[in-house]
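Thread: "does anyone have the structure for this chain?"

Original post by V.I.:
We have the sequence but no experimental structure in hand. Need at least a predicted one for the grant figures.
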Amino acid sequence: MPISYTGGSVTAGTMLLSQGAASFSTHKPIPFIGETRYFRRNEGTTDCYETNARLIPNPKAHFDVEFQLLGSIDAACTFVAQNVSASAASREFQIFQNNNTVRVLLGGSETVFTSTITNAGTYRIVNDGVNIEIFRNGLSIETQAAVIGAATEGSATFTMAGRHAGSLSSYGFTYAGVMSDVVIRNSSGVIINDYPVNDDANTLVDLVGGNNATVINGNPEDWQLYTQQENGDWVSTFDSWGKTNLASDWSGVGVALSDVSGGVSAIASDGSSDRAERTIVGSSIVSGRSYRFTVNAAQGIQGSSQFIQNFTFATISPTPIATQIMSPYTFDLLAMANTGLVRMYAASTGTAGDEVIIGNITAYEVLKLA
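Reply from O.Q.:
Generated one for you, tokens below.
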């Protein structure tokens, strides 16, 4: 039987937040199952998103910023900023994460939270001039008294996934990961800027305010098309594996390998942990990312202990191959290394002559909602 994923549900509705409110619901429409959209993975070394405008007139008095993070979350990074200076004491506004805590710089002074953004979700961070409150997926997770300094940078422009680092043409402390649906509201709770970040282009359209942003140091391959799943995750339509499936691609450990109709045959020599192995190389799998990894396989003419198990780059449950019909076996897995072995057992505990037929492999990146 193929292995399938399990997950939670997603809810959404109309955004409503009042001062001191403990929760809100996102303004975004509910994505429907099967919907497709583009996301961009920020590489996080030199790239970020820059507007040409000062979007928040006085962040020390008020700001209300929302953004969605998907997949693994960068532990030390800038989420949004409005600054020019490289000096923290002179920066007007920055929401960032460092030393395992969320931090907000206002006028060069820092408000430190105990919370760490380690889970995917929709985050909204609101300053009312007295307190700063963090919400995740509509629920308040922490409030701190705002620490507000005197620094103001009148020429600063708003950036996402990075901050300016000494000038409006230099950037630093960028975010490595997937950020989307960046929204800014005024003090009345009205949306004044809305960046879906689904553009598949270097221009990120502001659907409300008209202050389009530019991708700095981006590449076309940073964008991928994803499909919404029932549990709220997004699965890429691009096969990261994309490799041939020939006997010469595999190594035998106690098996004889040959090309056959429909795949690669691996026949056991003695029936004890006899297997075919294949090394993951290149950019097929990236450590820290989630994948929907599918191996097509079938029993051969003999044997009953054919298994898919003991991958060395990710943890999977031992999975029996229980039919002579070529079938997909799908694993939702988290890569723990950039390289490793895929292992297909002709005989986990069997006899000489046991056979497994290995079909094609696919690997589609999954942006986890939580």
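V.I.: this helps a lot. Confidence is low (pLDDT under 50) at residues 1-21.
O.Q.: and The two ends are 26 Å apart (CA to CA).
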